[in-house]
Amino acid sequence: MASKSNGVEGSEWARAPPPTGSFGDRIAKIFYDPSDGSILGRTPKRWGIAVVFYSVFYAVLALLFSLCMGGLFLTLDNNKPSFILDSSLIGANPGVAFRPLPADGVLVKITDDASSDRYIKELQEFLSPYKNESWFTSKRSCSAEDNYGFPDAPCFFIKLNRIYGWKPDFYELNSLPSDMDSSLVEYITALPANELEQIWISCWEEKLNETKIEYPWGMGLPGRFYPFLNQAGYNSPLIPVKVTPSVRNETAVIRCRAWAKNIEYNKSLKEPSGYTRIQLQLGQYEKLAADI
């Protein structure tokens, strides 16, 4: 009597050996085996079972994922971030930015009509949301009426980046910082008491080339615009800085700083903050007279 191993007669094959045949036949039977009608090693019935199983499995998985994500979104506020100020990734120190932005990301270069017109167009688009603001429409300098000072004395608009819930801690007149620009101190001390709640802006040239820097609208961002709470129709306050280089074809580097007690300036070399840099170069630009 033949011995058994795991319930299988030891003298018989538990499974028939693979049929012999040419190499090409064996490769072909991987894709389709006419003996049992299998495709890629599975009969149509087994393919049907596998398709039904994985369809149900992934449908249930997708349903569970949708329920989890739906529950998450139901807990979110559409107008307020979940993490704000010190608990947020960007922190509570607002960044400072300017417009128009350089065409190459670094240098604002004005050499001809095309380069000047590009920046004028960018400012028109950037400032278009402010057309309904009474404080903005009352300004005449650094406006569309004078081409924002381009090309000879371009105006750059300074603003703070929006941080939800951030409110400036204003300087008092008797506690102005010792490193504040003397021109800004003089400007602040000349203001009435009801106009001191502002975020101050001052600019200077990093490498002195006698570049002229003017503030046609003043040197402060009014505190009434803060905090930013994602209100409909909110426009960030801004002020223009008018820059007139004394030397053509040389790069003037202007640094503009925002001043408030809770704006930290230049934390470290790895984390600069509280200011923005404008690099400007004016070429030997000559506006062609229009044909008469």
Which regions have little confidence, pLDDT < 50, spanning 5+ residues? 288-292
The tally of helices reads 5
**What number is the mean pLDDT?**
86
Shape: elongated
Radius of gyration: 35 Å
What's the count of strands?
13
Enumerate the strands of the largest sheet in spatial order, edge to edge or round the barrel: 6-13-12-8-10
The portion of residues assigned to helices is: 10-25%
Beginning-to-end CA distance, first to last residue = 120 Å
Q: Which class best fits the helix and strand makeup?
A: alpha+beta
Strand content: 15-25%
Question: Could you give a short account of the major beta sheet?
Answer: 5 strands, mixed
> SSE order in H/E notation?
EEHEEHEEHHEHEEEEEE
Structure report:
It is a single-pass type II membrane protein. One of its GO terms (molecular function) is ATPase activator activity. With 292 residues, the protein is α+β, with helices and mostly antiparallel strands. It is 23% helix and 20% strand. The longest helix has 31 residues.
List keywords for this structure.
292 residues; alpha+beta; four-stranded antiparallel β-sheet; 5 helices; 13 strands; 23% helix
Explain the layout of strands and helices.
Blueprint: E1 4-5, E2 8-9, H1 23-31, E3 32-33, E4 38-39, H2 44-74, E5 96-99, E6 108-110, H3 113-127, H4 134-137, E7 155-160, H5 182-189, E8 198-205, E9 212-214, E10 220-222, E11 238-244, E12 252-259, E13 275-282
Parallel strand pairs: 6-13
Antiparallel strand pairs: 1-2, 3-4, 5-7, 7-11, 8-10, 8-12, 9-11, 12-13
Keywords: Membrane, Signal-anchor, Transmembrane, Transmembrane helix
Protein name: Sodium/potassium-transporting ATPase subunit beta-1-like
Region (Disordered): 1-20
